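Handoff note, outgoing to incoming analyst
You'll be picking up this chain. Sequence as last confirmed:
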Amino acid sequence: MSFWQTVRSQLNALATAETAADVIRILNEGNASDPEVSSYTGFLSTGVDAFFAGGGGDENVLDILRWDNPNWESVDIRAPYYGCVRSRVDGSLITYVEGDVYIGNKMPVGPTKEDM
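Most recent structure output, in case you need it:
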């Protein structure tokens, strides 16, 4: 698969993800399956649970989880590339920051974009 085919495959799979563990598995398996995509995963040693290499494309992890997957709800969205969502299935949380994906709410405490 090409780089963008791998990214599209990950986005399609995310549309049915039910939990944070599903999101991490989908991204890490997709990254491992494509050498070009896996070249972007060197950041994992810095505490990132998964990395989405297609963050510069038309859609990202937050887009899919917020708009295309009914299993997720917004918790704290500060920008299209920066926010936290919660699984309606088990309550698990994912924070997405420009391609970096963390389990849990890693958003800083303070006012949200909606509060301003």
